Amino acid sequence: MSVIGDYLTNDEVLIEIGARLRARRLDRNVSVDAVAEAVGINRKTILEIENGGDVRLSSLIKLLRYLNLLGLLDAVLPDTLPGSEAFSQRGQVRQRAGGVRSNKNKLGAKPAASSKEA
After folding, report:
1. Following DSSP, what letter does each residue of 25-60 receive, concatenated?
2. Is the pLDDT of residue 19 over 60?
3. How far from each other are the two terminal CA atoms of the chain, in whole angstroms?
4. CB of 55 within 8 A of CB of 98?
5. Cβ 45 vs Cβ 55: under 8 Å
6. Contact 2, 20 (CB under 8 A)
7. What rounded mean pLDDT belongs to the chain?
8. CA–CA separation, 5 vs 107, rounded Å?
9. Which of 8, 36, 94, 97 has the smallest count of CB within 10 Å of its CB?
């Protein structure tokens, strides 16, 4: 098995995750049919996950829960307190990312000339 990293393509990551899940299932000596019945998803879906298929997230969560691996997601995506950059200017937690806004005066545009006559 290889290390999952940013250098892998999405398909390679799916294949690696599927291989690891298959290995966990086999370590527990559980058949695909037994998992399918216990989890409530189709046998074909489990095989698709194990073969690196692109499946619904809810199906993956059900399989992770059955294999007692769901709690490990907390290490990957911890619930941390947001840093100061996560707060809006009003002090509220940001709900979405904002785009870059341009201000012509800040970008070197000359201010309008005054209409004073000498």
Report:
1. HHHTT--HHHHHHHHTS-HHHHHHHHTT----HHHH
2. yes
3. 81
4. no
5. yes
6. no
7. 82
8. 39
9. 97
**Sequence-distant (≥ 6) Cβ neighbours of residue 15 within 8 angstroms:** 51, 52
For residue 6 the two structure tokens come to 């940013």
Name all domains of the chain by residue range, CATH numbers in brackets. Answer: 10-76 (1.10.260.40)
Model confidence band, residue 77 (pLDDT cutoffs 50, 70, 90): confident
What's the rounded Cα separation, in Å, for the pair 82 and 48?
A: 36
For the chain, state the CA radius of gyration: 25
pTM metric for this prediction: 0.66
DSSP letter string, 73-95: HHHHS------GGGB-TTSSBP-
CA 109 and chain centroid, separation:
41
**2 confidence band (pLDDT: 50, 70, 90):** confident
